[in-house]
């Protein structure tokens, strides 16, 4: 349309009519005289609006997805954080379960041997007194601990108390070269003295040079006078090697200790000795030998084998 005086007048007229219709529609409310026209327009232009909306909505959804992706990232980060905390908690629970298992084993040993024990935790290893195999435990004189008390755990003999402070004590481990304990062989009652050799098996000198000992035999503590420093019956270890008898007055054997001195955690100090020697009752049950399967082969004669006549 060309920009003429007539066209400008027509535009002004159309605008005036539009404002008049809007005013009439507003004032008429639900009874507006243009309501029918509006519904007709909705009928005509509604499908077009839906099509446009369908075309635009994916874009809007994509924008919303981008906007929400930050929220999802935050949620994932929070979940990862919670997962890490849960794993740490489970790890802590695993350690607690392990310590509870150690404590239960030690209580069973104390019950079998009728030992009165004071539970303790190993809080340090090391060499406050040089290069000795020692550990520090978190009980001391205030807990009734005294020098030369037997220390054990759920596996067997750990060592003896050497020095005592108000709230801690030092334990000399059974594998220390300066450690010696009297031993008794299971069943045979052969006596000897076990000495530590560091990370090697204990060395035991049996008093009977002709004692019949074999690999797999087990030893317990013989006990000391007045039960200090050692109470009787505490499991010591298993014979791993026997030196050939040379006709001497003693016989040397090597013993793998029951206790693992590099993995000590929960231990018990024997504060009350048993009323009587428990003998071998504290030793763990021997594992049952695994039966060796036997195979029997039966040969069945074949039907096609030749048959010989004895009269020929």
Question: What's the layout of helices and strands?
Answer:
Blueprint: H1 5-28, H2 35-113, E1 116-125, E2 134-137, E3 150-152, E4 157-164, E5 169-173, E6 180-185, E7 191-197, E8 200-206, E9 218-221, E10 235-242, E11 251-257, E12 266-272
Antiparallel strand pairs: 1-2, 1-12, 2-5, 3-4, 3-12, 4-5, 6-7, 6-9, 7-8, 8-11, 9-10, 10-11
Task: Describe the protein's architecture and organization.
With 312 residues, the chain is an alpha+beta fold. The chain has two helices and twelve strands. The strands form two sheets. A six-stranded antiparallel barrel has the order 1-2-5-4-3-12. It has a six-stranded antiparallel β-barrel with strand order 6-7-8-11-10-9. A hairpin with a 4-residue loop joins strand 4 and strand 5. It is elongated. It starts with a helix and ends in a 40-residue tail after the last strand. About 9% of the residues have low confidence.
What kind of sheet is the major sheet? 6 strands, antiparallel, barrel
Helix content: 25-40%
> What's the alpha carbon Rg, rounded to whole Å?
46 Å
Strand segment count: 12
> Which structural category do the helix and sheet elements fall into?
alpha+beta
């Amino acid at each position: 349309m060309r920009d003429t005086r007539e066209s400008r007048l027509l535009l002004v007229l159309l605008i005036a009519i539009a404002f008049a219709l809007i005013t009439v529609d507003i004032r008429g409310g639900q009874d507006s005289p243009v309501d029918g026209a509006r519904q007709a327009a909705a009928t005509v232009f509604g499908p077009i609006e839906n099509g446009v909306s369908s075309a635009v909505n994916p874009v809007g959804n994509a924008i919303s997805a981008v906007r929400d992706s930050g929220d999802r990232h935050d949620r994932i980060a929070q979940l990862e954080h919670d997962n890490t905390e849960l794993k740490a908690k489970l790890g802590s629970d695993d350690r607690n379960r392990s310590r509870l298992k150690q404590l239960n084993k030690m209580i069973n040993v104390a019950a079998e041997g009728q030992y009165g024990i004071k539970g303790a935790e190993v809080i340090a290893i090391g060499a406050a007194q040089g290069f000795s195999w020692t550990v520090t435990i978190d009980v001391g004189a205030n807990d009734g601990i005294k020098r030369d008390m037997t220390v054990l755990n759920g596996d067997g003999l750990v060592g003896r108390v050497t020095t005592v402070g108000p709230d801690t004590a030092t334990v000399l481990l059974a594998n220390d070269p300066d450690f010696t304990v009297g031993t008794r062989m299971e069943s045979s009652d052969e006596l000897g003295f076990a000495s530590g050799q560091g990370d090697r098996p204990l060395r035991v000198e049996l008093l009977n040079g002709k004692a019949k000992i074999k690999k797999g035999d087990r030893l317990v503590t013989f006990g000391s006078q007045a039960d200090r420093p050692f109470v009787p019956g505490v499991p010591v270890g298993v014979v791993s090697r026997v030196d050939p008898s040379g006709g001497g007055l003693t016989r040397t054997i090597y013993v793998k200790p029951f206790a693992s001195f590099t993995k000590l955690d929960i231990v018990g100090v024997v504060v009350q000795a048993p009323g009587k020697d428990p003998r071998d009752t504290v030793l763990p049950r021997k594992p049952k030998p695994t039966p060796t399967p036997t195979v029997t082969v039966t040969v069945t004669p074949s039907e096609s084998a030749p048959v010989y006549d004895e009269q020929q």
